[in-house]
Amino acid sequence: MLKTLSIRNVVLIEKLDLTFDSGLCVLTGETGSGKSILLDALGLALGVRADSDLIKLGEKQSAVVAEFDIDARPGLDHLLNKQGIEFQKSLILRRVLSHDGPSRAFINDEPVSATFLREVGEMLVEVNGQMEAHGLLDPRNHGHFVDSFGCLEEEKKSVALNYRLWKEADNKLSKEISEYDKDLRDEEFLRHSVTELDELDPQIGEEELLARHRARMMHAEKLAQVVNEALENINNGTGVDGVLRSALQKLERVGDRADGLLDDGIRALERALIEAHEAVSELEKVGSKLEFTPVQLEQAEERLFAIRALARKHGTDVAGLSSLREELRDKLVCLDEWSSRLIALKSEISRFREQYIKSAGLLTKARRNAGKSIDKAIKRELPPLKLGAATFQTKFENLGESEWGENGVERLTFEVQTNPNTPQGPLHKIISGGELSRLMLALKVVLAGTNTFPTIIFDEVDMGIGGATAAAVGDRLARLSEEYQVLVVTHSP
After folding, report:
1. Can you tell me the distance from the alpha carbon of 69 to that of 90, in angstroms, rounded to the nearest whole number?
2. Which CATH architecture has domain 1-123?
3. pLDDT in tens, 426-451
4. Fewest C-beta atoms under 10 Å: which of 142, 282, 374, 483?
């Protein structure tokens, strides 16, 4: 609810601080007493388009601050959080106008755009009268009021869910058709690529093995020469083997006379001789592995260069060729199975569409029942409010399939006919002034449980009425004020 309104230098008002209570609050006074200025000032705080003409003559700027005491509301919480403003029970909206620049807006002292200020303001206050630009005068909201009146939340959720399932399946088909068309154009390339990959059949880790094998073969001749020289140095008469054997024989001949002093040396020479024999064996194995022919080198190079070239052709590395082959095979399988897949997808779309139509039909039926109840209730409210000649109707317009959506298959609008000789049409085009305010009052009374605004303002609701009609208006305002904060701008005392 609106707690306080502070106005500085707006039109004729230099300084004014107002405090509001819950329930019914009345702003009364004669024509020219400044009631409209108060509404203009409140409108500034709520984000209505600013006009520097509202600044008091002789002043550089004006400011309006509106403080609201509100409970947590999911929609408002989300809106504030998007802007990085923490939700608080006390919400302060401030607007500053100046002659030398654009207006500035603040929420809880955080700077915001005027557009955002208006979005927040439209969730806090509904003005019924000349200032109203949302709420019941906005045809886009009429369906919401009917659904809330009829308690159709579950029906709406079902329609929204089925619509999303239908459209997701439809989008999936469109995407797959696009991919199919592309793959179909590339079918020859796909089949050739798979054949090429199958023939080459690159293995995981093969590139590294081939590269090492190639490098070894390229240096094989030099390596073999070094190995052979090492073997000769070990095996020839003056080589390591001969030297070790000669030394061992000499020591063994005198060993029994050395009283064990040569035993460790003899054993060391024996081990060295064994190690030398093992070295010869290993080097001979290496030598056999270095026996390559130029043909073998050429074959290894051809294989290595072929798999690298194929990887470059497909924009991947050699390690990615295996997964690429599986991917291309899958595309070919999809092409081969496309007909049956297309039938399955279309069947799924048809099933979801039928589910949507069925749930939308149930929602339409429930809405029509709710609309009839609203029409009857409004009809009972009009005569006491001096609108006995007026008729009210909840109009249903069937939408073309291209306009169907999560909200169903029809557009709902509230229409009115002020008397039998005038055309029926939308509320904001057919009726205005005091008649509009009284009709809004009737709607508010009937739709009381659907209202989402903590504060409702009625402007000119008593214009041109008196007596029993004025009493009826007062009675309905009092009833509304039991559930909401109701501010009434009136000429009556």
Report:
1. 5
2. 3-Layer(aba) Sandwich (3.40)
3. 887 877 777 777 888 888 888 877 76
4. 282
